[in-house]
Amino acid sequence: MKVTRYDLNKGAGLTFAVMTDLHDAPTERIFEKLSALSCDAILIAGDFVHKKSLKNSPNALKLLRACPKIAPTFISFGNHERNLVADDERLIRETGVTVLDDSHVLFKGIYIGGFTSFYMEDSAVKLGDESAGKTKYRLFKRMKMPSKSCGLTEYEERTFKWLGDFEKLDGVKILMCHHPEYYPAYLKGKNFGVIVSGHAHGGQ
């Protein structure tokens, strides 16, 4: 496991550990690295599970339970989180992490936001899991990728309203957006400060 350090010169004086695409991988080395970093907060930008629900992802659940004991932990959802089910809401809440599902929080003077990944189809219907949409969190966006040739759905309108409100915040901002390809489509030229992503497994 390789740790890459970036100095963003934002004047905040804080250290953030960013992780993505762990895909329910074993966690022992991750905890060793995190403990050695002495970070102020941990950001997990999607795909902490892999093709399964959280309750069937023992390493991912162990990760979410352990990280808040090291530092305050914030998570956003990637495409693999489409596999989360209703009971996972309780599990996530009990870990102590802060879920940023098209939402943001203020942490030590820095706004941290999470842009939930779009999913190409209505996953709950496709997977035959009607419970997936009945949670406090939306868990995934039940819509197709936005298109300029058609009107916006309710989810799209809510998402883009939140992005607009987040952009207008006065101060340092960090946006977790799992998909780097969303940048040219929705984020380029916007005032989001720092954007962290994953998905392509290239250390974005």
What are the salient characteristics of this protein?
204 residues; alpha/beta; Purple Acid Phosphatase, chain A, domain 2; 4-stranded parallel sheet; 4-stranded mixed sheet; 6 helices
Description of the structure:
By secondary structure, the chain is of the alpha/beta class. Strand 3 (73-76), helix 3 and strand 4 (98-99) form a beta-alpha-beta unit. The protein has one domain (16-196): Purple Acid Phosphatase, chain A, domain 2 (4-Layer Sandwich), CATH 3.60.21. The chain has helices at 28-37, 58-70, 86-95, 123-126, 154-168, 182-187, and strands at residues 16-19, 41-45, 73-76, 98-99, 103-107, 110-115, 172-177, 194-196. The two termini are 15 Å apart. The longest helix is centred in the C-terminal third of the chain and has 15 residues, at 154-168. The protein is built from six helices and eight strands.
Architecture blueprint of SSEs:
Blueprint: E1 16-19, H1 28-37, E2 41-45, H2 58-70, E3 73-76, H3 86-95, E4 98-99, E5 103-107, E6 110-115, H4 123-126, H5 154-168, E7 172-177, H6 182-187, E8 194-196
Parallel strand pairs: 1-2, 2-3, 3-4, 6-7, 7-8
Antiparallel strand pairs: 5-6
Helix pairs in contact: 2-3
Briefly say what this structure is:
The chain is of the alpha/beta class. The protein is built from six helices and eight strands, in the order βαβαβαβββααβαβ. It has helices at residues 28-37, 58-70, 86-95, 123-126, 154-168, 182-187; strands at 16-19, 41-45, 73-76, 98-99, 103-107, 110-115, 172-177, 194-196.
